[in-house]
Amino acid sequence: MTGEESGRGVACLVAATAVLAALVALEALGPLRALDSLVRPGGLPGPRGLWEALSLTANAGAMALAVLALLAAEAARLGGVRRWTAALALSLLIAVLTAEALKPALGVPRPRGAPGEAGLLAALEAYSFPSGHTSRASAAACRLSEAGPRWALLAWLWAGLVALSRVALAAHWLSDVIAGVAVGTWADSLVRVGEPRWRRLWGLAARGPLRRFGVLDGRT
Known about the structure:
mainly alpha, 68% helix
């Protein structure tokens, strides 16, 4: 990473942190709730099956399996994992941890009529701010945007549809998905700025039987 790229990365991280902090503060103080009257949860048109399918593409389990499969395939084929794939995995992990930490901290209840869960999952998913699905989709969209403008357009179109699906399914308020975009963008910015550090830590962990999962040299 050049000095200019590093400077841009830090600037993006500072901006993303400021936006996320502002959204959290506005949510805690109450004004952000005014946005929720703009789109009623469950009130968007379209077949429910389509919204459910879109939502499933950013399901935590499905995304985790996809990333693990990609890491395993690269380790077997290349003898290591690409920087891009490692960064994607870390961005998604940070997005998940951040979203799940904010939910109980702010305690925003889900919309009435939100899909129910059972047992431990019900306790974990009782709160809605921010949207975990949107956080993960946005983190992935940031990473996919590296492939060029066409990929960036497609990736953010997908992330936007995932966000809408969460409102259409009455799983989230509008403010939840807006915050989800901020969380995903912040997670990606943090990984970009911290790349020298996390690559060193990754290298320390990828030893012995895990040596094939070391990050390959190079920008990709």
